[in-house]
Amino acid sequence: MSTDAVVEIKKLNLIFPAPDAPVHALSDIDLKLDAGDFVSFIGPSGCGKTTLMRVIADLETPTDGHISVNGLSPEEARKNRAYGYVFQAPALYPWRTVQKNIMLPLEIMGLSKQEQRERAEKNLALVNLEGFEKKFPWQLSGGMQQRVSIARALAVEPDLLLMDEPFGALDEITRDHLNEQLLKLWNQTQKTVVFVTHSIPEAVFLSSKIVVMSPRPGKIIDIIDSGLPRDRTLDIRETPEFLEISHRVREGLRSGHSYDD
Ligand SMILES: Nc1ncnc2c1ncn2[C@@H]1O[C@H](COP(=O)(O)OP(=O)(O)OP(=O)(O)O)[C@@H](O)[C@H]1O
Any idea where the ABC transporter domain is (predicted)? Predict the structure, then answer.
């Protein structure tokens, strides 16, 4: 395995055991993600996007094959706090303020109170939520809550930001706005991001690499290295280059019969 890759996966399979019919969730996955990539996993419901991300995060164990994260096993990488995870729902504690929500994992890490406060402040600024430290989650909109959970994930200073359909529950206007903000954040922080989505425009707009998956069993059908500039605005969605990549994603999904599901 080369050491420059942040994530390297070779011939990986994952079969969920079940007494009646085991589920072959991931089949022969080969994938290499480089530092600074913004990678989207796109595919229909049940194709294994979340499972693949959970394998990277050491939340699932593959049945066979090889995976390394920063040249280490996923377990070692997790112990080194390589991951920040953002879920579909913001999963904030309602009885803790925004600041205290962000500080919680830092408290568990044993950082000093001052370091916790500094990191909360810095990462709230990154998601444009300065001044909201003392608010409670229920005082914020859904989009703002999701930004808090992104700030919380970034505050542990992970190499890899793993995002599982973080904007799936939001309206399209809010989602567009957050997509633009997320791209800015990616450019500012130079993090490696892995992002799960069902949306072709979202995947093409955000990504430097798009991984198209098909169900039964979950396979990678196509890996598209996007030639779009890193610094993009939503206007790019009207350009022939954007439409060409979208077309290739759609063709990949169609060849995997994803539309039948
Ligand atoms: N713990 C588990 N035990 C058994 N089967 C599971 C388990 N977790 C996931 N699966 C199955 O594995 C397959 C892949 O699931 P996964 O959640 O990764 O898909 P997905 O592409 O993320 O779907 P969605 O877009 O709906 O979130 C599905 O058929 C799912 O039912």
Answer: 9-240
Cβ–ligand 1 distance for 47 under 6 Å, the answer: yes
Band of the pLDDT at 260, cuts 50, 70, 90? Answer: very low
138 and 103 Cβ atoms separated by less than 8 Å: no
Centre of ligand 1 to C-alpha 47, Å, is 7
- pTM comes to 0.92
> How remote is the CA of residue 155 from the centroid of ligand 1, in Å?
29
Contact 31, 212 (CB under 8 A): no
Helix ranges, the chain (H): 49-56, 74-79, 98-109, 113-126, 142-155, 172-189, 200-206, 240-255
- Give the other-Cβ count within 10 Å of 119's Cβ: 21
